[in-house]
Write a structure and sequence with these properties.
formyl-coa transferase, domain 3; 4 domains; Ribosomal Protein S5, domain 2; alpha+beta; Heat Shock Protein 90; five-stranded mixed β-sheet; eight-stranded mixed β-sheet
């Protein structure tokens, strides 16, 4: 039998290795930015073209490299950090040229210009598919410029799997923000297609957070610090009243390396227990310093997941640090951005007896188990006008059942149809606490959750608009300027076609700013900024909680956010119209997330409430 095992060619081995390191343009960005940080740079600039598919360029003013090191950094298994087995367990830096450069060079056209500090000339190295094209002296300033062009040019199948430019750019922004947060003492800048997206001056962590996420975070942040012989925790948490519907702005760094940890996230949420509105998540940027030999950073190829030697102790310290900031101090004073307040003491937080949960999902009225029997409606037959409520009346509208399985819930075909008499000049619908509508039906009393009903109605409306691209707009008398974070602006650009289909009209004003000229019709004209920001927040929340396509996600997010605005007192005509529109829906008795829009109290159940002994 002939031998069949053989060594792979070098170029093929490099492409296989690149598959573990370079998954998309953001992977290249992460590696190059970390190299610049480890090169002791004071300023780093990232230049992106075509979402990184055409060009990824990182310019730094770090220590640079010698001619020999410039050539060696593209060799596999080349590194400046590891000399012995023990070094593997003491690494605290991210990367210094090394293995990643070989992987990147295997799937792109790479040009490296670098000049070591103290050297008169630099060196320019061009590599394509791991093959050195040229190496020559070059006049340049101290530092390094790495240009990665035409990513996956020699692996077209991999290039075809890349997402749209807005999606890939959002991943790049995520990596950029993580590195920038971890290194506030370094100035960072980001340019996309020659347009400045971010310019972050060097400063304190508090300043870096505000520069990335917006000025409103000045009022939201509370410092968090706990020092023990085993672990040090430092950073900021958000005040509970500023919690959002998405998990997006939650960051853990262990020894300055960004990580993902559901275990530690649980520790933080446990500390916030009882302080957050339902389905809300707090902001936090927390740095953990721990002995490198007590953690394993190689659990995941991207090194975003690590294993702690003593997980229970880490959990307890993180929870205690957050709980101390919340429980032992009042609402944190406004941050003084002229002084070093990175880890300033806090004041105990105070919370009002009743928090405002207007933006939380509406809850259907709770009844006893006897009363809480499910009732399923699917559609309504055409109905006529509505008159005064009557105890002796004839139904004018019938509601058909969804399936035969539901037939046991319907004692009569028209038991739940709202009833009227021939009388005019009144309404049989009653509003309670500006939240619920009560309607007499033949079998008893129907209670409608006003906000949940609006959500179901709007969801079906927006689903249709997105499917047919037929959303109507109302023009704003005065266009609104809306400045977003870089990540949210990128998300809006990614969803621009869907936003237009819903009825939004806006223009890119540059510098992550939108000029909003119109919003979907029938939405109350107030605080367009809050509407769009809330919509983005709900969309991001759905991304983490649901596995649905883009249109479904946006329809759900839009319905929930707009329904929260359509609360308050209704006149008779509006109440009747709301009930009519609800029964005109395909699935009128549940919101898209499964929450009830209505409950039926049977006449017998009402009688039971007044039983005499």
């Amino acid at each position: 039998m002939a031998d069949i095992i053989r060594l792979l060619p070098e170029y093929l081995a490099n492409q296989i290795a690149a598959g573990e390191v370079v998954q998309r343009p953001a992977s290249v960005v992460k590696e190059l930015l970390e190299n610049s940080v480890d090169a002791r740079s004071s300023s780093v600039t990232l230049i992106i073209k075509d979402a990184g598919k055409q060009l990824i360029q990182v310019v730094d003013d770090g220590v640079g490299m010698t001619e020999t090191d410039a050539r060696m950094c593209f060799e596999r298994h080349a590194t400046s950090k590891i000399k012995s087995t023990e070094d593997l367990f003491r690494i605290k830096t991210m990367g210094f040229r090394g293995e990643a450069m070989a992987s990147i060079a295997a799937v792109a056209q790479v040009e490296l210009k670098t000049r070591a500090r103290g050297s008169e000339l630099g060196t320019c190295l061009s590599i394509e598919g791991n093959e050195v094209i040229k190496q020559e002296p070059v006049a340049m300033g101290e530092g390094t410029v790495v240009s990665v062009k035409n990513l996956f040019f020699n692996v077209p199948a991999r290039r075809n799997f890349l997402k749209s430019n807005p999606v890939e750019m959002r991943h790049i922004l995520d990596e950029f923000q993580r590195v920038a947060l971890a290194n506030p003492e370094i100035a960072f800048a980001l340019y996309q297609n020659e347009v400045e997206v971010m310019n972050l001056p060097a400063g304190k962590l508090s300043q870096r957070i505000v520069s990335i996420f917006g000025k409103e975070y000045k009022e939201q942040m509370a410092a968090c610090e706990e020092t023990t012989p085993f672990l040090t925790v430092k950073g900021y948490i958000g005040k509970p009243e500023f919690a959002k519907k998405s998990r997006g702005e939650q960051f853990f760094f262990v020894n300055n390396r960004y990580i993902k940890s559901q275990y530690l996230n649980h520790a933080v949420l446990t500390a916030f227990e009882g302080l957050l509105p339902k389905d809300s998540f707090p902001f936090y940027v927390l740095f953990l310093e721990i002995a490198p030999e007590t953690i394993d950073i190689n659990v995941h190829p991207t090194k975003t997941e690590i294993k702690f030697e003593d997980e229970k102790t880490v959990y307890a310290i993180v929870r205690a640090a957050v709980k101390q900031s919340l429980g032992l101090h009042n609402i944190a004073p406004s941050l003084d951005f002229g002084a070093d307040v990175n880890y300033m003491p806090l004041q105990p937080m105070k919370f009002p007896a009743s928090m405002d949960f207007e933006t939380a999902p509406a809850q259907a009225p709770r009844a006893s188990s006897k009363m809480n029997q499910p009732t399923t409606f699917t559609s309504r037959a055409s109905g006529g006008g509505r008159g005064n409520a009557s105890f002796d009346s004839t139904p004018t509208r019938e509601v058909s059942r969804a399936t035969s399985e539901d037939s046991n819930l319907f004692p009569e075909e028209d038991s739940f149809a709202p009833v009227t008499t021939g009388m005019t000049g009144g309404s049989k619908t009653l509003q309670v606490h500006q939240k619920y509508l009560m309607v007499q039906v033949k079998s008893g009393l129907m209670v409608v959750d006003q906000q949940a009903a609006q959500e179901r109605i709007l969801y079906e409306k927006y689903s249709q608009s997105l499917g047919k691209r037929t959303g109507a707009s109302q023009q704003l008398l005065f266009p609104q300027t809306l400045q977003l974070s870089a990540a949210d602006f990128s998300l809006v650009m990614e969803l621009a076609e869907e936003f237009s289909a819903l009825g939004f009209v806006f223009n890119d004003f540059g510098n992550n700013t939108l000029v909003v000229n119109g919003i979907p019709a029938e939405i109350p004209l107030r605080d367009e900024r809050e509407l769009i920001e809330g919509l983005l927040e709900q969309y991001k929340s759905n991304l983490s909680a649901l596995k649905v396509d883009r249109q479904e996600n946006l329809a759900r997010a839009m319905a929930k956010r707009v329904a929260s605005r359509l609360t308050g007192r209704l006149n008779d005509q509006e109440m009747n119209a709301l009930v009519d529109r609800l029964f005109g829906c395909q699935v009128p008795n549940y919101t898209p997330s499964g929450q009830k829009t209505l409950v039926i109290l049977q006449t017998e159940q009402l009688q039971d409430l007044f039983l005499r002994n």
